[in-house]
From TrEMBL:
Region (Disordered): 1-30
Organism of derivation: Cephalotrichum gorgonifer
Record lineage: Eukaryota, Fungi, Dikarya, Ascomycota, Pezizomycotina
Any one GO cellular component localisation term in the record: Atg12-Atg5-Atg16 complex
UniProt name for this protein: Ubiquitin-like protein ATG12
Known partners and oligomeric status: Forms a conjugate with ATG5.
Protein family per UniProt: Belongs to the ATG12 family.
Domain of life: Eukaryota
Family matches, as CDD domains: Ubl_ATG12
Length: 131
């Protein structure tokens, strides 16, 4: 049984070759291309390049960090210190451990704005942007 419709009077039997449906995807998934492998996009647009260049910069080179003791934690003689915005949060923890003379086996808990404890690999400048 032929599923194609029968020709109407006055029309010829020949029909153009069936073209693929444009919105149909190929069976193989498209793999993301890196910019070096892309033939279409050889460089980023000007706006994207300037946005990416400014994204890594911090508004301040140094950030003021204020330490407030909670519970039975000892207070510091200097509550406020400056740290580079590019440093990781682990540098703040190391500084506090050194100043408080805490043993390696003792726990130290630090919170930003008394709200959350960031991971040690978080950048201090990014935490300053959030708070």
């Amino acid at each position: 049984m032929d599923p194609s419709p029968s020709p109407v009077e006055g029309q010829s039997q020949a029909s153009p070759a069936a073209s693929p449906i444009p919105d149909r995807r190929s069976p193989s998934p498209e793999l993301p291309l890196t910019m070096t492998a892309s033939a279409i996009l050889s460089s980023l647009p000007r706006d994207a390049t300037s946005a990416l260049a400014a994204a890594g910069q911090f508004s301040q080179e140094k950030i003021l960090v204020r330490f407030k003791p909670v519970g039975s934690a000892p207070s510091l003689s200097r509550e406020i210190c400056k740290i580079s915005a590019a440093q990781k949060f682990e540098a703040v923890v190391a500084y506090l451990r050194r100043v408080l003379k805490v043993k390696d086996t003792d726990s130290v808990f630090l919170y930003v704005n008394s709200a959350f404890a960031p991971s040690l690999d978080e950048i201090v400048g990014n935490l300053h942007r959030v708070s």
